[in-house]
């Protein structure tokens, strides 16, 4: 829930871009915005130049031109900065979103901070909300106060983020100039970064066995194809007995040192087995559509994984039918992991050739 909340906060802050531009000015400003000390401005501010708040800004602040945003006074609403740095030495009561630029806090922030492509530095200030960082780091000074937690993004909220991002891009250039190409391209690239980062992480984990231990993957895949139900039963037993087995190891003095090795062995078996299941899945898929699939083993693993991950990821973005696609993708991943564990057991981690049941000859 925290991950989804952080991504929803990210979407809401991006939506402020459209709301701010749709306010009293109804278009993006093309000049620096400076609120002097002792001055109070009520209403949202959206510009493609810098924003300096030495007084009080009672509203949201949006900067999309790559210029800096400095809050030395008080900001009551949310702050969105795209391409520029954010410096808060005063008080920011709302959420802060920075895309492509760092965030430095030496004052006080009551809301959440989301940084994409830049880090967050809490020097000697205070942050009461959470911090979400993608493509950067979080640095905390010795005298700083941080009451929240560091979170990561969740792809499940992209279905909510995407419409608001498009709405923000619609107003980013004002009515006269149309959407800002730089902003649109950056936001599209951000969405692609989410997708491909997750895809790449899973693909790398499954490709490692196929690249370095191809025979092991082929042996496990042969078991899944030729003796699927036996592998399924053994895999189910391994899943059911995993936590009880760990518990027995923990309560035993001699078993405690073996817990890390057991976890590592279980993870390796899962990756090996799911890699083998990907080979079988893509083979059945291309046979069904009567097309030629990849030739090499790594290509087969990548194709099978892409089928499962594609159902999960794209199902998140498609309304109504998307839930069914996501469910099918998760079921394939879970079933493949269970089958893979059974196949890894039967082949001793792919080191033994499978003893498949012989087909009974037809009666003459």
Secondary structure layout plus pairing:
Elements: H1 2-21, E1 33-35, E2 40-42, E3 45-47, E4 51-53, E5 56-58, E6 61-63, E7 69-71, E8 74-75, E9 79-82, E10 86-88, E11 91-92, E12 96-99, E13 103-105, E14 108-109, E15 113-116, E16 120-122, E17 126-127, E18 131-134, E19 138-140, E20 145-146, E21 150-151, H2 158-171, H3 174-177, H4 181-212, H5 214-226, H6 228-240, H7 242-251, H8 259-289, H9 297-317, H10 321-346
Helix pairs in contact: 1-2, 2-4, 4-5, 4-8, 4-9, 5-6, 5-8, 5-10, 6-10, 8-9, 8-10, 9-10
Identify the strand order in the major beta sheet: 1-4-7-10-13-16-19
Helix content: 40-55%
Number of domains: 2
β-strand percent reads 15-25%
Number of helices: 10
Approximate shape:
elongated
Q: Outline the biggest β-sheet.
A: 7 strands, parallel
Strand count: 21
Specify the structural class. Answer: alpha/beta
Q: Average pLDDT, to the nearest integer?
A: 78
Quote the distance from N terminus to C terminus.
64 Å
> Poorly predicted ranges (pLDDT <50, ≥5 residues)?
1-26, 154-165, 173-178
Radius of gyration: 26 Å
In brief, what are we looking at here?
The protein contains 10 helices and 21 strands.
How would you sum up this structure, described in words?
With 364 residues, the chain is an alpha/beta fold. The chain folds into 2 domains: 2-159, no CATH class; 195-346, no CATH class. Helix content is 51%, strand content 17%. It has 10 helices and 21 strands. The protein has a 7-stranded parallel beta sheet, with no helix packed on it. The radius of gyration is 26 Å and the shape is elongated. The model is unreliable at 1-26, 154-165 and 173-178 (pLDDT under 50).
């Amino acid at each position: 829930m925290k991950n989804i909340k952080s991504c929803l906060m990210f979407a809401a802050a991006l939506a402020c871009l459209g709301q701010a531009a749709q306010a009293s000015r109804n278009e993006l400003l093309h000049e620096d915005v400076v609120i002097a000390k002792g001055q109070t401005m009520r209403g949202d501010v959206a510009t493609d130049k810098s924003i300096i708040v030495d007084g009080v800004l009672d509203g949201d602040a949006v900067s999309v031109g790559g210029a800096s945003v400095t809050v030395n006074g008080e900001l009551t609403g949310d702050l969105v900065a795209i391409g520029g740095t954010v410096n808060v030495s005063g008080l920011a009561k709302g959420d802060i979103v920075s895309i492509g630029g760092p965030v430095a806090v030496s004052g006080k922030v009551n809301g959440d901070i989301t940084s994409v492509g830049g880090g967050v530095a809490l020097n000697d200030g205070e942050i009461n909300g959470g911090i979400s960082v993608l493509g950067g780091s979080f640095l905390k000074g010795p005298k700083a106060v941080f009451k929240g937690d560091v979170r990561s993004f969740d792809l499940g909220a992209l279905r909510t983020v995407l419409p608001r991002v498009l709405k923000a891009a619609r107003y980013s250039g004002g009515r006269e100039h149309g959407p800002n190409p730089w902003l649109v391209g950056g936001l599209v690239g951000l969405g692609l970064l989410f997708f491909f980062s997750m895809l790449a992480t899973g693909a790398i984990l499954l490709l490692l066995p196929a690249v370095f231990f191809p025979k092991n993957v082929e042996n496990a895949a042969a078991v899944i194809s030729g003796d699927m139900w036996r592998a399924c039963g053994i895999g189910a037993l391994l899943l059911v007995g995993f936590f009880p087995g760990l518990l027995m190891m923990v309560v035993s003095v001699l078993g405690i040192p073996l817990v890390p090795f057991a976890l590592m062995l279980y993870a390796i078996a899962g990756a090996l087995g799911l890699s083998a299941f990907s080979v079988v899945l893509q083979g059945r898929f291309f046979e069904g559509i009567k097309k030629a699939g990849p030739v090499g083993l790594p290509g087969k693993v990548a194709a099978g994984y892409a089928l499962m991950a594609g159902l999960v990821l794209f199902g998140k973005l498609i309304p109504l039918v998307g839930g069914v696609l996501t469910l099918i993708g998760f079921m394939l991943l879970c079933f493949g992991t269970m089958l893979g564990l059974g196949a890894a057991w039967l082949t001793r981690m792919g080191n033994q050739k499978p003893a498949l049941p012989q087909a009974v000859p037809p009666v003459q």
